[in-house]
Each structure stands twice: as structure tokens, then as C-alpha cells.
Amino acid sequence: MTQPDPRPAAAADEAARDVTLLDLVNVVLRYRRSIVLLPLLAMALGVAMSLSSPRSYRADGAFLLQGAGGEQSSVAGLAAQFGVSVPGGGSDVPQLYADLLVSRRFLGRVAGQRFEFSAAGQRHRGTLAQLLRVEGRSAAETQRKAVKLLRGAVSAKVNPITGVVGLSVTTPWPALSEQVAQRLLEMVTEFNLSTRQSQAASERRFTQARLADAARELRAAENALQDFMLSNRRFENAPQLMMRRERLARDVTEHQAVYAMLAQAYERARIDEVRDTPVLTLIEGPAGSALPLPRETLVRGILMGLLGLVLAIGLAFWREALRTSRERQAPELREFMRLKDEALGGLGRRRRAAPVS
Questions:
Q1: β-strand 164-171 against 291-292: which pairing, if any?
Q2: What pTM does this model have?
Q3: What is the rounded distance in angstroms from the CA atom of residue 302 to the CA atom of residue 48?
Q4: How far apart are CA 192 and CA 102, in angstroms?
Q5: In Å, how far are 66, 102, 105, 163 from 99, measured between CA atoms?
Q6: pLDDT value at position 290?
Q7: Which residues contact 248 (CB under 8 A, 6 or more apart)?
Q8: pLDDT averaged over every residue in the chain
Q9: Phi, psi (rounded to 5 degrees) for 106
């Protein structure tokens, strides 16, 4: 009597058994070489990539916005000490200038400007898009790509306590980083001056028209008081005339105050319209500030090593799963091969036994 093969039952029992911690350790030990070598290779690759990558240089600059809003800025500064926010004076908000430095308007103008500098004994010249090798199928596409690249290279932030606006520019060359940062600061100054002069011109036109109206109103009030005085030379003993005279005199006084205030505002607007004094105080210029950024070789090597370790462990368990699958299928495979040989052998015997006609 033929005894049943115990190996399929043993394989089935092994498949039904739960995986233990010892099984996991055995897998790691079985493929220990690949688990050690693959992370080391990945770490070496990460270090080599970090050392071969070109260095980047960052230039920094900082400026402080001086309030030029006259009395309004003084009142806003005094109110800020007590935690009160005064509306108005939006052009003096430091965050506005930080946003301008990374705006498409500024970055687009910088991308199209030409720069010239020397680095490593070579002379470089061209637009910023050309120096950074930004290419597009059209000029508009090249401009968009250059602006997108600059958004990652230029950063600006505001110190919420002091109001100082900091600027950082990172490029492959220290001289280029400094020149781009300097140009951005100049553009901020130009924007500030042109904006203030434009606002002053608008205020001057409005104040001039209002001053003319105030002059007419003052002249009318003075004429009314003069006519009253000429018509009523003796009014001390008449209460009604006394009240009217005081009312007319009060109107003259009020119109005089309004006229004086508008006259001062008009003169101030005329001065601001032609003023070319910058209101940005440069705290730290970008010249000589460019420093190389760390390559972070060790960090990149460790990260690549960890990635290699994860891949090596995953590969080890994948190989173990394939090996286990083959072992489980071995009895069925041997049975298939035996039956196939028997079937093919029987077919061959029948062919040889067939008579030849």
C-alpha cells in the first residue's frame, strides 16, 4: 500500500503558522549582505551627488521703512504703542514692500535685465534668464520660467517687532546674488518715490481745488461781517444784533481755520510732489554679503542610506516571499511533472504500437 507524501501536509502546516518575530529576524539574517551593502551604496551615491552638485551663494540685505505720512504717521505710531491700529497709511506697511520684492512685476523686470560679473577667472554677461539658462519656445514662456525660478531664489520677510524687511537672493555665483539683491533694493526705492510723488500730486490737486473753495467761503464770511458792521455802527445795546455779530465773527474764525489748514496741506503736498529723498533706510547692503550655502552632504548621505535600507529590507522580504512560494508549490510541481511524463510516455508507446499500413 502506497504511503501518502507527508511534505505537502508539512508545507500546509507551515503556511498556516503565524509569522513570528524570529521569522523576521531570520529573513534579515538570510539576506544580511544585501541589507548592508545596498544602504552603503545608496549613502555613497548621496554623498557623491552632493559633492558634485554646484554650490549656491546667498546674498542678504535689509532695510527699514521710515514713515513719511506726516501727522498721520505720528498718530499711527503713537496709537501703536497702546495696541491700537489706526487705518490708513497702507503704503507704509513693511509687508507691502516684502510682497513687492517677490512679486511678478519686480521679478519679471529683474529677469530681463543684463548683469556682468567675473567668477572663477571667467567673465559672465547677459540677462538673468540667459545666465541661469532659462529657455522657452517664446519670449513670454522664457519670462514665465525665469520668474518661476526667481520665486524660489528670492525671499523676503518682515521682522514683526522692528519692522525691518530682510531680503535674500540665492544664485550659483556670489557676485550675481549681490547684484540681483542690489537691483531689487533700488527698484523698491524707485517704486516708493514714484508712488509717494504720485500720491502727493493727487493730494496737491485736490487740496488746491478745496483751498480755492475755502478762500471764497472765507471771503463771503468776511464780507457778511463787514456789511453788518457798516450797517450797525452801534449795536452794543441790542441783544439781537450782538448775537448776530458774534455768529458772523464765529463763521469768519472757522473759515479762517479751515483755510489755514488747507494752505498748510497744499504747501506740504507741493513739497512732497518734488521730493526725491528716499524714505527707505538701508540697514545692511548686499555688497560683500554673499556666502556659500552648505551642501548638507552628511544629511543627504544619511537620508539616502535610510532610503537604501528601506529598499533592501523590502527586497529581502520580497525574495523570501518568492522562495516560500516556490517551496509551497514544489510538491504540486513534482506531481505535475510526473503525470506529464506518464502521459507523454503512454502516448509515445501507442504511436510505436500502431501498425504501419
A1: unpaired
A2: 0.55
A3: 12
A4: 16
A5: 17, 6, 11, 14
A6: 81
A7: 221, 224, 225, 228
A8: 76
A9: -70, -45
